[in-house]
Amino acid sequence: MNKKNLGIAAGIIVIIVVGIFVFMNQRIQGAVSNEKILPNVKVEGVEIGGLSKDEATKKIEDYVADKATDTMNFYVDDQTKKIALKNLGITWNVRKTVDNAYNLGRKGSIFSKYTQTSKKEHKVALSQIFDEKTCIDQVKKQTKKIISGPQNATLKRKNGKFIIVKEKLGYTLKEDKTFSNFKKAVKAQKNKTLMETEKEDAQYTSKDMEKVKDKLGTYSTYYGSSASGRAANVANGAKKINGTVVYPGETFSVYKAVSPFTSKNGYYLAGSYENGQTVQTYGGGICQVSTTLYNAVIRAELKIKERSPHSLTVSYVPRSADAAISGTEKDMKFKNQFDTPVYIEGKANGAYIRFTVYGKKTNPNRKVSFESETTSVRSSSGEKVIKDSSLAAGTRIVEASGHTGYTARLWKIVKEKGKKTTRTLFNTSSYMATPSTVRVGTKKSEPSSKKKDTTEKKKPEKSTEKTTEKKTTEKKKS
Predict the structure, then answer these.
(1) Alpha helices in 159-285 (DSSP H)
(2) What average pLDDT values come out for the chain (478 residues) when binned by 10 residues?
């Protein structure tokens, strides 16, 4: 082909290309000349094609307001928790979304603009900003019952029978993967997302609970003659301990189980020992709860970790068989050293409080009992005098009788098939001897000032009478 023909061919090509550009440009201009969004444009199914920017903004804002009330279902295994999207740290950028829709056919190369104006339908993504911290914080808060450590199987006792409560898996949240799953679900307009977790099995299962069926130890004490406040405290303490499961290796604290000693926690004012004196405190009588449990526990042969005697002797158990509670200074603690869990049942019927320890008996032929021995007696001597200005001088009122002091010890006796095998010293105790407390009046008798005043008033009257008599005599003489 000669140069002339080449020139003609090139010219034709240029004309064609220019024609194509002119055609494309005319097509584009025709599509966007009305200041409207291209036809058939949708945002998450919401039609905004052919609308002005203001019209589209209003429509998307209404859609977002509705969408914020939607929920996302966070699930793991067969457990699910619904959380509203508005609480999960999502911000919807309506303005950016409308700008992206409006720029279709208006921004980019002539080829991309022509392609956009030629398409029959456009899907524009709803612009969203995700806050990972807000999302994860809310997920943790709302799924506390799901995302938690493993829960051991436990027991309930109803109508004299045990009911096993099944164990639960433990879950640890994988935050990054859970957040990534959430974002993908939102963008895909799904309402369900997987919580990525690490799983942990419970240490004690229903099979372990099935072994708890034998009565290991039981004990009861009488409180029927107690004042109403003390009786209520005893019943309240029994209720708080009832149903406790102590797993192998665990230590149980009576103080932790029954405190705080406040009216809000169900306690009333009642008498209790403090430094050898009887005082009114909230929770007075809780020591009888601790003592009764102590005697059941030692008969179940659980390991005593902490026990203290009262400052003064108590009437509801033999000496050295008591277990006092006094804040964190005196507590009763025991450890389950067995390989199987134990269950504690506590009951108070208004007259007697009873604790029973259930578990797995390893030797049905073994029986234990306890014997109290008093080793010394210290008589109460002297008296404590309290001066009382509200009582007349010379008045004496015995406020509290003295207490005899004792030392005592408790022996543990073990029998196998009815025959005594061992008798060992279990504990020792010392109880204070206290003097009587006497309240002595110091109020002085009232001065007799009023009597003196009366006498002084009568003197002039007597003087007048004498003067009158004298005058009368003188008249007679005259």
Answers:
(1) 175-187, 206-209, 228-241, 254-258
(2) 67 70 63 82 92 93 93 96 95 94 85 80 92 96 94 95 96 97 94 96 97 97 94 96 98 96 90 63 89 98 97 94 91 97 97 98 95 95 84 84 92 94 96 89 70 46 41 38
Closest by alpha carbon to 384, among 401, 369, 372? 401
Contact 36, 50 (CB under 8 A): yes
446 domain residue, yes or no: no
Is 141 inside any structural domain?
A: yes
How many CB atoms are located within 10 Å of the residue 251 CB?
14
Looking at the structure of the chain, the number of domains it has is: 1
The DSSP call for residue 352 is: E
Dist CA 166 CA 209 (whole Å): 9
Domain extent at residue 108: 34-194
Q: For residue 405, what are its two tokens?
A: 């002091």
Helix (H, G, I), strand (E, B) or coil at 132: helix
Q: Within a domain: residue 447?
A: no
pLDDT of residue 33: 73
Query: For residue 204, which of 360, 310, 1 has the smallest C-alpha distance?
Result: 360
Backbone angles phi, psi at 240, to 5 degrees: -70, -25
- DSSP-derived 3-state class of residue 85: helix
Decide: 232 and 282 in contact? Cβ < 8 Å. Answer: no
The answer as to whether 73 is a domain residue is: yes
